[in-house]
Amino acid sequence: VTAHHTVLVSNIIGVERNEYTVPTAPAEDAPRALQSMWETWQEMHEPGTRRSLREWLHDSQMDLHDIHIGYSSGTFSLQERAWAEQLYLSMCHEVQKQLDPQNRAHRPIIDELQERMADKMYVNFSLFQSMPDAWGIDQLFPVLPLEGLDQVPERRAVLLDITCDSDGAIDHYIDGDGIATTMPMPEYDPENPPMLGFFMVGAYQEILGNMHNLFGDTEAVDVFV
């Protein structure tokens, strides 16, 4: 049950985002998986290459998987793992720039990369207290930034609350193409973090959620027009 007149407003208090910096080339005696990732990166920038974007991603994912396994067994160092993960993010970013949203064949890759590379935005609220249906029954609630609407939403983000529970995240969002696992957001400005509006949050949400993690009651304002 939704209440069309009800809007939950909260602020973003922090963001965790991926930075795309290209590492230097690995040492000549570096393990083969590191060398292979670097070769894929170089091939991506060669003019006239005939390999597909999917092939580049697949090869880099396989190498990164081997490095993760090797790190667990002590074959790779922490520095080597970090180098590989940073290079992989740069590869994903490079592939993302070459994708065409109007090309239906590119849509699965676009969705995959948007989810993998999305910013994590921490919002000053408790999902379990204010929007328990989003967690309990996967209810979809429209979510929009209330500021920065004159900016192009060039980032993708997932929203997390500030409770101690890892389930305190919104997993699905309404967008122009249907249902997505991330939402478009303007560039984040830590000096002026945007407010967010959660619309149609429904009747009985706070009654269902009750008190959670010692959060106080959400302030309520009645607006009459």
Q: How many DSSP helices?
A: 7
User: What would you call the structural class?
Assistant: alpha+beta
CATH topology of the largest domain: Lyase, Ornithine Decarboxylase, Chain A, domain 1
Question: Whole-number average pLDDT?
Answer: 82
Order of helices and strands: EHHHHEHHEEEEEEH
CATH architecture of the largest domain: Beta Barrel
Domain module tally: 2
Please give the largest β-sheet: 6 strands, mixed
Share of helix among residues? 25-40%
Beta-strand content: 15-25%
Q: Provide the CATH top-level class of the largest domain.
A: Mainly Beta
- According to CATH, the homologous superfamily of the largest domain is Lyase, Ornithine Decarboxylase, Chain A, domain 1
Q: What's the arrangement of strands in the largest beta sheet? A: 3-8-1-2-4-7
The total of beta strands comes to 8
User: Gyration radius, to the nearest Å?
Assistant: 21 Å
Gap between N and C termini: 24 Å
Domain Arginine decarboxylase helical bundle: 28-114
Protein name: Arginine decarboxylase
Pfam families: Arg_decarb_HB
Keywords: Lyase, Pyridoxal phosphate
